[in-house]
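Q: Protein A?
A:
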Amino acid sequence: VDRFLSLHFSISSGLSVTEVDAMKFLCRDKITKRKLEAVRIGLELFSILMEKQLIAPNKLGFLKELLQHISRDDLLSLVVQFEEGEPHAPDDQPDEHEKPVDVICANVGREWKKLMRELGLPEVKLDKVEAAYRYDLDEKLVQALWEWQRWKGKDAKVADLIRALRGCRLNLVADRIEE
């Protein structure tokens, strides 16, 4: 798993709706109002900040500043630990360009609803994703995963995702995520 994306997932999982709103407020001079209005979880905000090159694996000052302003020293310490970690991954690490979501999208395909049901995502949310992304299978899965994370909040764990993949007999995908 890409350490930088894993960091974002960990931080996002620890943020409440109020804290995400506070971070959005602090970003209003850097991100358009329209984009900010669409943001519901930390991962969405982080994606925009990465697009705008405000944060990157070697550029974490703005992220640290946001976490300081919302008084989340526990999450700030994760960023500091990331900065102090190995700058270059050892040879036994997975390909840094292969992201967990990419692995899931490349291997789950039409089984996406089965996976989401195994994770316990309500049918109403599945129908919403299905309607919004009718012709884009990969985007259905990505949005369904985000919907699951929003729904579960801090209880959205990678271990649950791996367990659900195994429950759907997608063991190869689960193995690749575990790596």
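Q: Protein B?
A:
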Amino acid sequence: HTEEELSRSTHSNPGKNLVNGIKTNPASSSPKSSLSVPMGPPVYVDLAYIPNHCSGKNTDPEFFKRVRASYYVVSGNDAANGEPSRAVLDALLEGKSQWGENLQVTLIPTHDTEVTREWYQQTHEKQQELNIMVLASSSTVVMQDESFPACKIEF
């Protein structure tokens, strides 16, 4: 590619070669290569959606060490595909234990799954130690022919 072609392709597709907002090597197509991102300072955000429906395919303890959120949304509801992943929920505990500060974190599951219930029960003491609260919702939204659990977050 000439510089002009490269510039044009970058402007026509600004997200090209970005994985979770981080520039990657275009020659490398392996998803695992995106996990070897150079270390940098942590990023603090109010709300973070755990990528890929909380699948273990591209979220590990490093994600939680670097993306420090007050609220994490867990949206997985497909046990056959490992969503949500117990490994990712455990990675939250491992990553948060490395923060060095005990900031309040709230985990917001969008579905009541067996994986999240078991994880909650089995790691409850560790959650308390790390100042992690799991938000349970007893509210239900009813729209036309469907109903689903609801959660309201105020900032």
